[in-house]
Specification:
This protein is α/β, with parallel strands linked by helices. It is built from 20 helices and 14 strands. Helix 5 crosses helix 6, helix 6 crosses helix 7 and helix 12 packs across helix 18. The longest helix has 33 residues.
């Protein structure tokens, strides 16, 4: 057993326990590294100001003579954990020491637990960065610290472009993966003393103490470039993202408090978003811009008519685009051309039978038309191959859902159709692709399009086989109920076909 520090103000030795204790003077108490210390009662008369509570990292045992009858009084008065009597046996002393050591270990564990709980209050554990509570509590001290040293504080706010569409398109797993990787890229660029703070779900602020505006701008450009160049791969999915950034500097922008900084950061970020994303805006540059006077807008009714006309134009252009894409698929894969309209009609009717809203029905219809859009990126040699595809070719074919989703991802009006396009090859039993989603994890629109697509494919001629009869196709669909397809959708489809 390791020797324990023993403080005594007497020359008298303690032979019974000499192999347990090492003598130390009271004056060196602060320098003792041991967590457990034994103090002779006679020292307390010389040092009446002693309090065990003053030493949070130590536990004290009181050593008293065998004739002393007031151990509890002294233990309570000075805050000792326990006492060792002169007449205690070696075994009794060991038990008391062990109990004290156990208490020390418990204190250490409690301290770690408390530190961890405190960290939860100011940290985002999932991303290993700070949360907004940390920013609110510390921003004032950072401002004062930099001002006191004639320096400045720079802050970068950044936001992942089109993150909502990414989340809706690919699902929360892929979206979370993207956020984590973005934060890791930022962490690799900034220094350890800089603070990465989660502002909102996909928005972050990086705090740079003692950093000039020009230096912060260079760091921001490096972050933007690295994220734009990075390919985000997750299972069978892959995409690229951009970020919009805003930069403020407390000295350059004359910002003196929390509220002013937040307003400046939001304005800079908003400007980057309005300019199309993947942009960097300095708040200083915004201050130089001349604001447009509302007096210039004089004819309100004329403006409203113009907006309504533009909305109609956009809608019509969208429909033209949708069918233009469908025609492009027909040129690439003639077998697809024969059934895409039929898939759309069947899917639309199933959606109506399910009682979906008009917008949801429209999303299903567009998805059914465009579900194979990604085949534009597949070689005709593979699409038109008459024999069985090899493993490499199968993997290439499996990329067409996310190719289609990537093409359409930033078309705002079609984002409701993208989940069905991306997941129409998932199976109810979880053995589909690209993510192996199971049951109701698969978006409802994708389950509808999946069944309509398979039925249309079965009843269509393919380069590698003849078309199945309607009866044979229905048998295959029935066998796939609860395996390939949502049972409820199969039942609606069979009833619909019968009618």
């Amino acid at each position: 057993m390791k020797e324990i520090s023993f403080i005594s103000c007497r020359r008298k030795k303690i032979p019974s326990f000499k192999n347990l204790f090492k003598n130390v003077s009271f004056g060196r108490l602060d320098k003792i590294k041991d967590s457990l210390v034994v103090i002779d009662y006679y020292c307390l008369s010389r040092y009446p100001q002693f309090k065990a509570d003053s030493y949070s990292n130590k536990i004290f045992l009181l050593y008293i003579d065998k004739n002393n009858r007031k151990p509890l009084k002294y233990i309570n008065k000075w805050g000792f954990f326990d006492c060792i009597k002169e007449g205690d046996s070696y075994h009794e002393v060991l038990i008391k020491i062990q109990r004290a050591n156990d208490f020390i270990n418990l204190k250490k564990e409690n301290k770690k637990l408390k530190e961890y709980i405190d960290s939860l209050r100011i940290k985002d554990i999932q991303l290993n960065c700070f949360n907004w509570q940390y920013f609110v509590e510390n921003i004032t001290s950072f401002i004062k610290e930099t001002e006191g040293k004639n320096s400045s504080l720079s802050l970068i706010i950044f936001d992942i472009d089109y993150f909502r569409q990414i989340n809706e398109t690919y699902g929360w797993e892929f979206a979370n993966y993207i956020i984590k990787k973005v934060v890791n890229i930022v962490r690799s660029v900034v220094s350890p003393r800089d603070r990465i703070i989660r502002y909102r779900e996909d928005s972050f602020v990086v705090l740079f103490p003692f950093c000039s505006l020009e230096k912060a701008k260079k760091i921001a450009e490096k972050i933007k470039r690295r994220i734009r160049q990075c390919e985000f791969k997750y299972k069978n999915l892959s995409t690229h993202v951009g970020i919009s950034l805003g930069i403020v500097n407390t000295e350059e922008d004359k910002l003196h408090n929390y509220r002013e900084i937040i307003i400046a950061l939001e304005e800079a970020l908003r400007n980057s978003k309005l300019e199309g994303g993947n942009r960097l805006t300095l708040y200083r540059d915004l201050l130089k811009k001349t604001k447009v006077s509302p007096e210039k807008i004089t004819d309100v009714e004329s403006l409203r008519k113009r907006i309504r006309y533009l909305n109609r134009e956009v809608s019509q252009n969208l429909l033209d685009t949708v069918y233009g894409f469908a025609k492009a698929i027909e040129i690439q894969d003639l077998s697809t051309a024969h059934h895409v309209e039929y898939v759309a009609r069947v899917a639309k009717k199933i959606a109506k039978e399910l009682g979906l809203s008009p917008q949801q029905i429209k999303d299903v219809y567009h998805a059914a038309i465009l579900h194979d859009l990604g085949k534009i990126g597949i070689s005709p040699k593979i699409l038109l191959k008459k024999g069985k595809l090899n493993k490499e070719e199968e993997e290439i074919i499996k990329t067409h859902p996310w190719i289609g989703a990537e093409i359409l991802r930033e078309i705002h009006a079609l984002r409701g159709a993208i989940p069905a396009i991306l997941y129409h090859h998932e199976r109810w039993d979880g053995y589909g692709y690209p993510l192996g989603l199971k049951g109701e994890e698969i978006p409802l629109s994708a389950r509808i399009v999946a069944l309509a697509d398979v039925y249309a494919a079965l009843t269509s001629k393919r380069p590698y086989r003849k078309a199945f009869s309607k009866e044979k196709a229905i048998q295959i669909i029935k066998k796939g109920r609860g395996k390939n397809f949502d049972p409820q959708i199969v039942d609606i489809f069979l009833r619909m076909i019968k009618e």
